[in-house]
Amino acid sequence: MQGCTMRFVWFLLACLATSVQAEDRVEVDVELFLAVDVSRSMQPYELEIQRRGYAAALQSAEVQDAIASGFLGRIAITYVEWAGAFHQREIVPWTVLGTQEDAARIAGQITSHLDQGMRRTSISSALTYAADSIEANGFDGLRRVIDVSGDGPNNMGVPVTRARDEVLARGITINGLPLMTQDEGIMARWNIPDLDVYYTACVIGGTGAFVVPVTDWSEFEDAVRRKLVLEIAGQPATLWQAQVRSAAPYNCLIGEEIWERNRDIFALP
Length: 269
Prior knowledge:
Rossmann fold; alpha/beta; 5 strands
C-alpha cells in the first residue's frame, strides 16, 4: 500500500513539473530565427548596411502591421550572425516582438553591434545551430522559420543539403535571402552568379519556402521588409519562387569545390 502511495505522489509531482514547464512557455504566432551572414567576404560597409537594414525593417509599419494581424499579435525573434562552422554569435537573444517599443529595443541591439566579419561560409552549420536554438527556446510558435542570408555557397561543414533535410524533418521552414551584389576583389572568386538558384535548389525548404534575391545593396532594406512581412503573415511568395526556379539538377557542392580550387591563395591547410 505504501509503495502505491509513493508512486502516486511521484506521479503527481511529475505532472505538476510538466504543467509548470508548459505554463512557463510563451505562445507566439511565429518563432523567427534571423541568420545573418558576416563571413569575411562581406565588407565592413556591407555589414553596416545589413544591420541598419534589419533594424529599419523591423520597425517599419508594414512589419508592425503583419505582427498585429496575427492570431496572437506577437512573434518570437532572435538575430544571430554566422560565418564558418564554429562561428555563430548571438546579437539579439530570443525575445518577444509585439509592439513598436519591442521593435525599437531590438533595433538598438542590432545597430549597437560593431564586430567585424568572421572566416569561411558554413550555411549548413548555421541551419543546424538555428534549429537547435528554436527547439531550446521558451516559445511555442504556430510556425517556426529560419531566415538565412548569405553572399556565397556553403564551403565548410557538412553538405548543406544534409543539414537542410535534417532541419526540415524537425518541422522548420527555411527561407533564403541570397545577396547577389557581386562585389569585386579577391573574395569575389568564391561567389557564384546564380546564388538565387543555389539557395532554391540546396538551401530552402518547408511549407511555403521562398527566396528574395538582393542584386544591389540599395535594395536590401526593402527586400528584408518584404521578406519579414511574408514570413510573419505566413503568405505564399510564388513571385520569388518563380523567379529562381530551375528544372535542371544543381551541384549543391559547388561552394566546397570552389574553395578547394582556391585554398592555396591563403596557403590554407
